[in-house]
Amino acid sequence: MNDNSYLQRMTKYVLPVLVSIFLHSVPSHAQDAGSKVKQIDSLVAAINRSNLKVQSDSIKQNQPLVGMSSKTYITIALDGKELKKYTTRINMLMTEDGVTRQMNTSTIMYFDKGALIKVEEFTQKDDLSKAFDWYFESGKPLYYTLPPDEVADERAEFLLSMADTVLKRVQ
Fold first, then answer.
1. Could you tell me if residue 161 is inside a domain?
2. Could you give the angle at the alpha carbon of 28 between the alpha carbons of 23 and 109, nearest 5°?
3. pLDDT in tens, 147-163
4. SS3 32
5. What is the value of pTM for the model shown?
6. Residue 14 CA to its chain's centroid (Å)
């Protein structure tokens, strides 16, 4: 038997079967979640490019007894009366034992057809920065970048609850 003909048969008959087996062994829900995340990111990109009606406000809080002051910025973006984006950004100064530290956080919620689709969270304290993305579908967590554990699940449920409150207040 010629080594070349054996290689040709392997390439022609066996390799496609192995590739097919491999592709079908990847869980379909993982493939579905990945494509849904891409769809949500496309919607978010469209929201960010859109010329939406934007309203902003801020709240300043000083609590010298506990050594804290903060300024919170709230921004909403509307398409007609439909909420598309809700942003909170908090700049906080904390003084403890004569040392002042700064912390900045932001939470950006994206909505489509009255439902939460994505949350982007950022936190910066001293030299440490963290960023997490949360994706939602049909009122349930779809995917998030925080390592999965009980805290992540609780945070996802909290974000859904917070989004419901925001929607009720805005609309």
1. yes
2. 130
3. 777 788 899 999 999 99
4. helix
5. 0.78
6. 42
Q: Residue 105's closest CA among 77, 119, 85, 125?
A: 125
Residue 43 dihedral angles phi and psi, to the nearest 5°: -60, -45
Higher pLDDT, 25 or 48: 48
Pairing of the two strands 68-79 and 140-144: unpaired
Query: Please, are residues 109 and 85 in contact by the beta-carbon 8 Å criterion?
Result: yes
Number of domains in the chain: 1
In a domain, 6, yes or no: no
51 strand-pairing partners: none
- Residue of 110, 106, 135, 108 lying closest to 123 (CA atoms): 106
CA distance 144 to 152: 8
Domain assignment present for residue 5? The answer is no
**What secondary structure, in 3-state letters, does 37-90 show?**
HHHHHHHHHHHHHCCCEEEEEEEEEEEHHHCEEEEEEEEEEEECCEEEEEEEEE
Q: Is residue 8 part of a domain?
A: no
